[in-house]
Amino acid sequence: MRNWLLVTVAAACLSATSGANAANRDTDQGGAITPYYGTDGGPVDPFYGTIDPFYGDGNPDYGLIGPLWGDLSSFWGTVNPFYGSINPFYGEVDPFWGTVNPFNGNPLRSLLYGYWDVAGPQWGALNLEWSVLQQAGSKNYLLVQLQLAVLFTSADLVWGPIGHELGNQMLAKYGIDPKSQASLAAATPEMRSAFYLNWYDALMTTIGVDDVDWWMAAVHWSPELALTNGAAGTRVGLLDASTTGANSDVKRFRFIGGYAGYVDDHGAAVGSLIAAREDGTGVMGMAPKSQIGLYNPFDASGSGTWKDVSKGITRLDVKENSVINASLGVPGWTLSKQWGPILASLSDKSVLVKAAGNEAVQQSSDISWPHGASAPDNLIVVGSVGPAQQISRFSNTPGEACILVDKTCQEQNKLKYRFLVAPGELMLVEDNHGGITRMTGTSFSAPLVTGTISLLHSRWPWLRSYPAETTQIVLQSATDLGAPGVDPVYGWGMLNAEAAVSPLSFDNLTVFQPFVFNGKKIEVDRNNPNWTPAALKTAILTPGQLDTWDSEGAFLVAFENVGTTYRDFIIPLSSQLVTASQTVNGSRNRFQAYIYERMITWAESLPRHGRQKK
Fold first, then answer.
1. 517: confidence class by pLDDT, cuts 50, 70, 90
2. Average pLDDT of 426-448?
3. For 34-73, b where at least 16 C-beta lie within 10 A, e where not — what string?
């Protein structure tokens, strides 16, 4: 067992762009609905730009790659992103649990939760009725008209006349005339979803708060989680297209090399999901204190060579970015062999997060790894899921493909053990022109994982030197989806940001008995300072103990071994400490209040056998 140094000190993508670029239909997914991203009616390449990844003799530094735009429709299928448990204001997951709420000081705060609680199911019922009538070939849409009127009337009660006005504008934008039975009959599911998502975004933009999106609840992220674990911020490397910079809501977004001339909205969108600030405007990112250094490997045509990618990774690595995001790739591969030499040359202080790609490919071919190089333990490949937590129809998956080390496959080297999924449909992002838009693709799943790693490295800075342990924390904390355990479609499952910054297992903690505030003095039973997890569970379940701890201002300090390093946790047992900070091992951090409920659930649960769905 490690000798802990313990020091404590008492402490008290088919949507309208909103904002400046409302008319920019060439660089967002606004305008006429099309299953492809690109200019309206223009030529479309699913990987945006000339791509020939295997041209020539297979030299890994030769050939072209492109950013993962995707060959998909943002609003494919019957998506109801704000209905039921996937409504960000609805269900048991409250994205704003805790003390930080982006609606603080806003006069609409008291109404917003209740409004979306009602409006989400309202829309879900309306959309379902609409679909039923269309499937029956009905020509009578009076009920849909009445329900739309009710939806708009309800909005007017909260938003004023702008609610109804924006609703009609969005219906018109997507060619839906609520007064025409024929128009209602012709409105596709994609058109309807586009209308509702745009209406939601437009309404939220009018009130001067950061926009809330569905992915937040889906991955158990909140502004409070970011504040508790990301106060210091970390360096994040971004291998992506250049941005305008001036319009970004990311506070520290710097261009550090590559092609300056190729500028589009892909890099800005990815960066915003990582680090956009909670500042009352635009979107919110996973780790808003992060510093992003961007290297652009794409030339004026929008494509780049593997040599460009290798140079970019090297430059980002040299800049001491502890995590590097690469939302790019080649057609037909979840992970291609060209990544081998790049990962083999990466330092032992960086994690590479790579988007899986958007061709609906389940990889069947093994990946030959460079001779003498071990399989990467600092790689995470990320696929996409939608609001219903089903794999996106476009997302590439790992299959049973294997990373071949010296031409041999070992089970632990299968790609699925380096794979997980995250939300990637209808993602609200910055448009690089001062506004917001929605985009879809695994490109926008990867930055959620990157942002989570940034939070980990901010809360536990020494993890920056432990990329293998960081990778395992993210993978092992994922919520299991699909077949039980690690599977060829979902890998480890769905990213769970809260679980990642919590103990992986309360059963494996070293726990110090509760510290109690007594004025400025901290009292502890020094004759028996350590508890086993079993002793902690017994104490939690003792009648009246939780109330006693609450009144005394008590808290726990716990340690968890992770590979060859560790993490510490400071868990408040009292509501008095939710906003307080504490110094442990020389670092001052906020109490991790979100862990309290997880700990109580653990204490009250029956013993588990094996990895199970959470």
1. low
2. 89
3. bebbbeeeeeebbbbbebebbeeeeebebbbbbbbbbbbb
Tell me the C-alpha distance between 565 and 587, whole Å: 16
- DSSP secondary structure string for all residues of 48-93: SS--BTT-TT--TT-SEEEE---SS-TT-SS--TTSGGGSTTSSS-
Long-range pairs, 152-155, Cβ under 8 A, ≥24: 154/115, 154/118, 154/119, 154/122, 155/115, 155/119, 155/203
What number of residues does the chain have? 614
H helix or E strand, kind and range, residue 556? strand 554-562
How many CA atoms lie within 13 Å of 15's alpha carbon, on the beta-carbon side? 28
Q: Report whether 68 contacts 331 (CB < 8 A).
A: no
- The phi-psi region of residue 360 (left if phi > 0; otherwise alpha if psi is between -120 and 50; otherwise beta) is left
DSSP SS3 for 469: helix
Element (H, E) at 421: strand 419-423
List the structure tokens of 541.
């379940």
Residue 56's pLDDT band, with cuts at 50, 70 and 90, is very low
Token pair, residue 332, equals 């037909």
pLDDT in tens, 482-493: 999 999 999 999
Query: How far is the CA of 230 from the CAs of 196, 288, 475, in angstroms?
Result: 33, 8, 20
Please answer whether residues 298 and 271 qualify as being in contact, where contact means their C-beta atoms are separated by less than 8 angstroms.
no
Tokens read off for 373: 């190089």
Q: What is the pLDDT of residues 293-307, one digit of tens each?
A: 999 999 888 888 899
Q: Identity (one letter) of the amino acid at 13?
A: C
Measured in whole angstroms, the distance separating CA 442 from the mean position of its chain's CA atoms is 11
What is the arithmetic mean of pLDDT over 564-580? 90
Place of tokens 């901010």: 458
The type of residue at 542 is T
Among 126-130, 161-165, 566-570, top mean pLDDT goes to 566-570
Please tell me the distance from the alpha carbon of residue 377 to that of residue 343, in angstroms, as a whole number. Answer: 10
Among 44-58, 204-218, 288-302, 537-551, the least confident range: 44-58
Give helix 161-173 / helix 189-205 axis angle, nearest 10°.
140
As to burial, measured by CB atoms within 10 angstroms (0-12 exposed, 13-18 middle, 19+ buried), residue 105 is exposed
Q: Could you give the CA distance from residue 437 to residue 155 in angstroms, rounded to a whole number?
A: 22
Proportion of the chain above pLDDT 90, given as a percent:
48
CA distance 468 to 285: 24
Helices (H), 211-253: 214-218, 223-229
Q: Taking the model in full, what pTM does it have?
A: 0.81
Q: Rounded CA gap, 598 and 604, in Å?
A: 10
Q: What is the pLDDT of residues 66-107, one digit of tens each?
A: 555 443 333 333 333 443 333 333 223 333 333 344 444 455
Question: Which residues, 6 or more positions from 240, have their beta carbon under 8 angstroms from its beta carbon?
Answer: 67, 266, 267, 270, 271, 294, 296, 325, 326, 327, 328
> CB of 383 within 8 A of CB of 442?
yes
CB distance 391 to 421 below 8 Å: yes
The angle, 0 to 180 degrees and rounded to 10, between the axes of the packed helices 446-459 and 467-476 is 120
User: Do the strands 323-326 and 351-355 form a parallel or antiparallel pair, or are they unpaired?
Assistant: parallel
Residue 36 has pLDDT above 80, yes or no: no
